[in-house]
Amino acid sequence: MNNEQIQNYLGTLLVSFFQDKYSDPYAFGQFLKPQIKRKSLPEIYHINDIDKYDFQQLCKIFSGVSKHLIDTKTIDWNLRYAVSIIHSWRNYTSHKSIDNSLDYETEIYHLIGMLRFVSLIPLRSYPDDIDEFKRSLKEKLYLVVKNYFEIDFEDSEEESKESTKNRPSENIDQKDMLDKIYRRLDILTSAIETRVSANNIEVQNQPSVKSITLEEIPVDEDSSFDDSITEEGAREQLIALRDKIKNENPDSKSWRSVLRSSMLKNIIEKRITNLEDFKKNISGPEFRKTDESNLKYFESIKAIIDRINEA
Hints:
This protein is an all-alpha fold. The protein has helices at residues 3-21, 25-38, 55-71, 77-95, 104-120, 130-149, 154-166, 174-197, 231-248, 261-269, 275-281, 284-289, 298-305. It folds into two domains: 3-122, no CATH class; 154-305, no CATH class.
């Protein structure tokens, strides 16, 4: 997938978002049209005409209405920040010369921003191929981060060989290869996740997120933590808990963690707080991949998930 195809796909998602949120003539006239005028964009008279705008224009409009969307709790700062990243990516790729190619760190930053955007944008209905699009971005991220970190995947390769040995009658098809990529991405993204997660809601003059120490993680039912937290706050604490689990189980592989990157979103969105829920909400292969030594931490996971503000 080339940059133009990525831009087109992300632009289509933004168009769908605007059409979902501003289909009412009052909302269109009251909130969207003033931003179009303020951004000096070609005027449109109906929300359906917004697909005439290019990707950069759509990003500009989103930036203009983001404060209203945040104030009305339609989105949070995470999505606003993700859009600023993909807008930055568009400008970077559109204006770079042949000698000014993207460095690894910038590519990682932009790809993670794209994945965050696709995961966070609230739509009434999503394209059928959205998972395929995310898979393509993850493959790109894997290749870039592999080179950047010079990660040795020997352990992951051994696990893959052992898995194949146990099921010799099955062929290694494309899905198996993608599963291997996802296992590797769990290792790669965990290496950079703590570096970027604290910045995910830092936008313009917003205060940076306070880092979570291991001592702040509620670990039992008698925990004194009773303040509600956002989903992003829960994610921060689960990442910190994952580090604690790793410290207490040094022989456990990162890609087998109960809180590996691919599991975090599921646990938060589906409010998974016990082993039974965990089994119900993930596939058999994903469950078998999870290190048994990690399963005893569901009390700690529950203490975090139960504090999420449902308002």
